[in-house]
Amino acid sequence: NAGVMQNPRHLVRRRGQEARLRCSPMKGHSHVYWYRQLPEEGLKFMVYLQKENIIDESGMPKERFSAEFPKEGPSILRIQQVVRGDSAAYFCASSPQGLVEQYFGPGTRLTVT
Amino acid sequence: QKEVEQDPGPLSVPEGAIVSLNCTYSNSAFQYFMWYRQYSRKGPELLMYTYSSGNKEDGRFTAQVDKSSKYISLFIRDSQPSDSATYLCAMSAQGGSEKLVFGKGTKLTVNP
């Protein structure tokens, strides 16, 4: 059973470009979470999605950030017009319905130059 | 006051030592408590999961929760160099799917 998959693993963008991060949950998991980890900081919740629904986006910055989890395909975290402060590791986690345990992917390390 | 406080360390111990890692929290609604291990430049790996107060043991690892003190601990017995990693505590208030609130993590080094 493959774990949570994220791609790309490393992403370099210039200021002002768009970044798209992809996450495929574990097989049988219908819930996806995105977290951001800044250097020397813990993981910070961004958004929680189920298929075609955003359940909780209380941790998402109000501008430039969006997320989706379509009926088919991976979940996408999209950052428009990236700035240097967006440089971080972005982790996706998934869980089965009704369970609190979350399983994390390897992360995407975004560097904004 | 942050919701979850965790001493970042670093913590350095000799091989075979008993390691104690701790977190405190302020939100009395938290009922589900997890410990994750994160190796450098990798994703967090779920180690232990406990509900409410009490102890849970899994091999060399023991998780303790004291809700009255809002204090949780992870003990590692007979520590090994392969245990060298950052340990993150995480919590949530509700059962079922919900966001986790993490501590900053404690960096542990076990020296051979």
Structure, explained:
The complex is a heterodimer of chains A (113) and B (112). Chain A has strands at 5-7, 10-13, 19-24, 31-37, 43-50, 53-56, 65-68, 75-79, 88-95, 103-104, 108-112. Chain A is mainly β. Chain B has no helices and 11 strands. In chain B, strands 2, 4, 5, 9, 10 and 11 form a 6-stranded mixed sheet that branches. A 5-stranded antiparallel sheet of chain B has the order 1-3-8-7-6, with no helix packed on it. Chain B starts with a strand and ends with a strand. Classes of the chains: A mainly beta (113), B mainly beta (112). At the A-B interface, β4, β5 and β10 of A face β4, β5, β9 and β10 of B.
Spatial gap, N to C terminus of chain A: 37 Å
Q: What helical percentage do the residues of chain B reach?
A: under 10%
Largest sheet of chain A: 7 strands, mixed
**What amount of the residues of chain B lies in strands?**
over 45%
Question: What is the H-and-E element order of chain A?
Answer: EEEEEEEEEEE
Helix count of chain B?
0
Q: What ranges of chain B have pLDDT less than 50 throughout 5 or more consecutive residues?
A: none
> Span between N and C termini of chain B?
37 Å
Radius of gyration of chain A: 13 Å
The assigned structural class of chain B equals mainly beta
For the secondary structure, the number of strands of chain B is 11
Largest interface: A-B, 29 and 28 residues
Number of strands of chain A: 11
Q: Unreliable stretches of chain A, pLDDT < 50, 5 or more residues?
A: none
Oligomer: heterodimer
Separate helix tally of chain A: 0
Mean pLDDT of chain B: 93
Q: Order of SSEs of chain B, N→C?
A: EEEEEEEEEEE
Give the overall silhouette of chain B.
globular
**How would you sum up the global shape of chain A?**
globular
Largest beta-sheet characterization of chain B: 6 strands, mixed
